[in-house]
Design a protein that fits this description.
8 helices, 213 residues, Arc Repressor Mutant, subunit A, 2 domains, 46% helix, two-stranded antiparallel ribbon
Length: 213
């Protein structure tokens, strides 16, 4: 069986080594690049099934490199590595084509699970592209990921949190948050306020439209 090829871009040699070992352990074929320009050139000259990329890098940062890679390939899955959990950062990356996030410090089991789900997303998006279907229904919203989340919503309890949904689909909180906001705008879900919560808001949500299969 042909191993999936993963491009890892990070300016930290220790992180590059760790990510390479994790990918190899997961049965993948990793290629490493120490900066955005080098990673872009590798991507331009080779076929990869997944990209794992750091946000903060000298020269081309993660967002610049993401845009360059998306100019070449609009459907390969791209996971962004970051210590910054701000939603506005996540929204900017998702708007320009990031698929998901992995928060540093990296935990191997979590990253492997995230890699597996994003490889599936990338494969489905590729198949849709070959079938000349629209891959993105809106800026930062992938139709494939939206389908995944909408199917998971049907299995959610009547009221659920973003954390609940994130764990169900295996995608980062920041990624799922953007899709929840999109579904709110489309009136497919509604907010169920939870009062007295401390720390990160724990508002719950309720699915309004349950389509029969």
């Amino acid at each position: 069986m042909t191993h999936k090829k993963v491009l890892i871009i990070d300016d930290d040699k220790d992180i590059l080594y760790t990510l390479k070992e994790i990918c190899s352990f997961a049965g993948l074929t990793p290629t490493t690049a120490s900066n955005g320009k080098e990673g872009y050139q590798f991507f331009k000259d080779n076929d990869f099934n997944l990209v794992i990329m750091d946000y903060h890098m000298p020269g081309w940062d993660g967002l610049t490199t993401l845009k360059k890679i998306r100019d070449i390939n609009p459907y390969v899955s791209i996971i962004i590595l970051t210590v910054d959990e701000r939603q506005e950062i996540a929204d900017d990356f998702l708007k320009h084509g990031a698929t998901d996030f992995a928060i540093k410090p990296i935990k191997a089991p979590d990253l492997i699970a995230r890699i597996q789900i994003n490889l599936k997303i990338g494969q489905i998006q590729t198949e849709k592209a070959l079938a000349e279907q629209n891959m993105f229904v809106d800026k930062g919203i992938s139709s494939t990921t939206l389908d995944l989340i909408e199917k998971a919503l049907l299995e959610m309890p009547e009221a659920f949190t973003i954390d609940d949904l994130s764990k169900s689909v295996g995608l980062a909180y920041q990624t799922v948050h953007r899709y929840v906001q999109f579904l709110l705008e489309k009136n497919k879900i509604e907010v169920v306020p939870v009062y007295g919560a401390l720390g990160r808001p724990k508002n719950k949500y309720r699915l309004l439209i349950r389509e029969k299969s």
